[in-house]
Design brief:
heterodimer; A: alpha/beta; Rossmann fold; seven-stranded parallel β-sheet; 8 strands; 28% helix; 20% strand; globular; B: three-stranded mixed β-sheet; three-stranded antiparallel β-sheet
């Protein structure tokens, strides 16, 4: 059964744990074992994320069919993803959100106050969203008039990096309170970003944020990504963010 | 700790390939840009294999290097960590061609099965 939702999808049948080879017989091995037992090599060549990739491709097809542009938002916990989305959903007509957290419906409730659709995925103990979890909630989405879908991932700069959700573009947030060297400490996730948002810029002075150093670190870890500086609280830079989303 | 779910996937693939045979070894390829910690992968392997056909299996991990291709110089290069620029022209839009993999390459099963 599927570990995510109990849906019975064949991919999570966990055969490893059910198909134990019955070994009731004894192996008599009286001779000394100074040689390695003969083995046969079977080529497999299967990526660990093959299944996630299948669901991601399926999601991507669904998004394309609905003419949706989909953004996967990634950051550490508390970088301001939800606050940014609260404003974005208000300011950008035709937007909706799917939001992932280990527990609580709090974020979806916050986002629904904007009047937009917001669907919560609670992952339990899982530290990331995967494409299958997203696939499961898509039928809850009313896509009439919808243009933009934001997927707010579980706050985590490590695990979500590996999981393609079928998104159109990937956005990684770095808030000024986190320190300038986060991009160097978590290079894998930053390298996958299409856009890096420097968030909570209104707090930069209070926390002694070294802007030049931070931008240089982002450039190094994510050389291909675009970069924008914003404050969801004051609204600074949000017009650039909206322009990027519409682009 | 997504290594636990990733190792579950790798073990499932190994058990399917073994088709009922006990598994002597798994050969897994891990790239530095895969986002996976090899030690955590080994820990997950130890935690997940008891009671399965891979209970006595060896985990062989082959670590790869990042592989990029520069579209301007038509050159392949393997940059040190966090330096993605082409060593010849300095371009940063190199195409990733390897180093982000996490895959089960092969398994070993007893020859007599």
């Amino acid at each position: 059964m599927c570990e995510t939702c109990g849906c019975g999808h064949p991919h999570d049948s966990s055969p490893a744990h059910d198909a134990a080879h019955a070994h009731g017989h004894e192996h008599s091995h009286d001779h000394a074992h100074d040689h390695a037992p003969p083995v046969r090599t079977l080529n497999v060549n299967q990526p660990a994320l093959a299944l996630n990739q299948r669901f991601a491709d399926q999601n991507r097809g669904w998004f394309r069919a609905k003419a949706l542009t989909v953004f996967n938002l990634l950051s550490s916990p508390g970088s301001g993803k939800t606050t940014l989305l609260e404003r974005t959903l208000c300011d950008l007509p035709g937007s909706a959100a799917i939001v992932g957290d280990l527990q609580t419906e709090n974020d979806a409730r916050r986002l629904r106050a904007s009047g937009a659709q917001a669907i919560q995925i609670t992952t339990g103990a899982t530290c990331h969203l995967d494409a299958h979890m997203v696939a499961h909630v898509l039928d809850k989405l009313d896509t009439s008039g919808l243009r933009f879908l934001f997927i707010e991932n579980v706050g985590n700069l490590v695990c979500p990096a590996s999981y393609d959700l079928g998104e159109t573009r990937r956005v990684v947030l770095l808030s000024v309170t986190e320190g300038e060297d986060k991009p160097l400490k978590y290079p894998v996730i930053f390298r996958t970003a299409d856009l890096v948002l420097v968030a909570k810029c209104d707090l930069a002075e209070a926390v002694g944020f070294d802007r030049a150093q931070a931008l240089a670190n982002i450039r190094q870890a994510a050389p291909k990504a675009q970069m924008l500086e914003i404050s969801a609280k004051t609204g600074a830079g949000l017009q650039n963010w909206y322009a990027w989303l519409r682009d | 700790m997504h290594e636990l779910s990733l190792m579950t996937n790798l073990l499932d693939a190994a058990v399917n390939a073994a088709d009922g045979a006990p598994i002597c070894a798994l050969r897994v390829r891990v790239g530095p840009l895969s986002g996976v910690v090899v030690e955590a992968l080994r820990f997950a392997f130890e935690a997940l294999t008891p009671g399965t056909p891979a209970a006595n299996a060896r985990l062989d991990i082959e670590e790869t290097l990042p592989a990029f291709h520069c579209p301007h110089c038509n050159m392949d290069f393997s940059p040190p960590a966090l330096h993605y620029e082409c060593p010849a022209c300095g371009a940063v839009d190199g195409e990733l061609r390897g180093g982000d993999e996490l895959e089960l390459i092969a398994i070993e099963v007893p020859d007599h099965v």
